[in-house]
User: Which sequence fits this backbone?
């Protein structure tokens, strides 16, 4: 847990109670790591009014890090359904990506991309658990030791990216959400914008902006913790953390599919906007997850 003792609880509660129109914006600036828009106002306010360890999380992440416990992870483990649903609403958020010309691959081939929506974050354990509980879909290999699946099973890990899911699992979840997986080209466009930048934030590595091997986390981290690593379109965690399935086949038979973005297990050389790998559609691994598109 990253401790920031400069923010007392009383400060947060005072801002919540304030009638000052600027108070909520100050709350967001001081405590909120994740995407915000007005449709999320009530959910964000409920979460910020709940004691979820807000005073223990810093906006600065420095390597090497230990286990980061996120307030959203705390919320997702609570019995209170309203608070869990508020956290899930944050994680379900999508971003509209406008029609434009994307620079694809290392050669920066210009390709016109039609407007689409994409998940602001990779799909998390809690979102995938909701899918399983509502559809009775098979749960991931790593969950099979759990005798009973509920929101307390993965306490504090609910907002970590789901892993050990194959292409077909990811596609099934996307269908459940009335979505699909992004294409390889859409994924690159969402991560790098309209230019040929190497990383979502530019071409240089300075401060930690994503979860790669350089961070020293030695595992996944909560989604949304790297505000300095968002893409030009406002998407988080597009590099590092987990490889992300796309719906672009690598071979003519469609037995292998492309995944993008690298993972926590890889360094920056393999975690860029143009990094990709391909896996059998039935393959699962501890560093492969996904996000959805619409």
Assistant:
């Amino acid at each position: 847990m990253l401790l920031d003792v400069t923010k007392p609880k009383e400060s947060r509660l005072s801002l919540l109670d304030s009638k000052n129109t600027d108070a909520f914006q100050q709350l967001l600036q001081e405590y909120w790591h994740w995407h915000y828009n007005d449709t999320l106002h009530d959910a964000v306010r409920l979460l910020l009014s709940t004691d979820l360890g807000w005073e223990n999380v810093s906006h600065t992440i420095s390597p090497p890090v230990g286990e980061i416990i996120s307030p959203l992870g705390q919320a997702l483990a609570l019995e209170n359904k309203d608070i869990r649903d508020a956290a899930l609403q944050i994680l379900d958020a999508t971003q509209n990506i406008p029609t434009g010309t994307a620079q694809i691959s290392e050669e920066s081939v210009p390709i016109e991309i039609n407007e689409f929506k994409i998940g602001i974050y990779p799909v998390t354990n809690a979102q995938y658990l909701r899918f399983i509980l509502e559809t009775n879909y098979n749960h991931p290999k790593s969950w099979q030791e759990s005798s009973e699946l509920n929101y307390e099973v993965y306490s504090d890990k609910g907002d970590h990216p789901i892993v050990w899911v194959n292409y077909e699992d990811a596609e099934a979840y996307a269908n459940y959400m009335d979505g699909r997986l992004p294409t390889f080209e859409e994924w690159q466009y969402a991560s790098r914008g309209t230019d040929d930048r190497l990383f979502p934030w530019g071409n240089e590595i300075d401060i930690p902006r994503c979860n790669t091997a350089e961070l020293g986390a030695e595992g996944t981290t909560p989604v949304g913790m790297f505000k300095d690593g968002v893409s030009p379109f406002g998407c988080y965690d597009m590099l590092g953390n987990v490889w992300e399935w796309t719906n672009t086949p690598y071979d003519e038979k469609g037995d292998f599919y492309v995944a993008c973005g690298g993972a926590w297990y890889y360094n920056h050389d393999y975690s860029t906007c143009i990094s990709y790998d391909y896996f059998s559609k039935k393959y699962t691994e501890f560093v492969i997850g996904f996000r959805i598109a619409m």
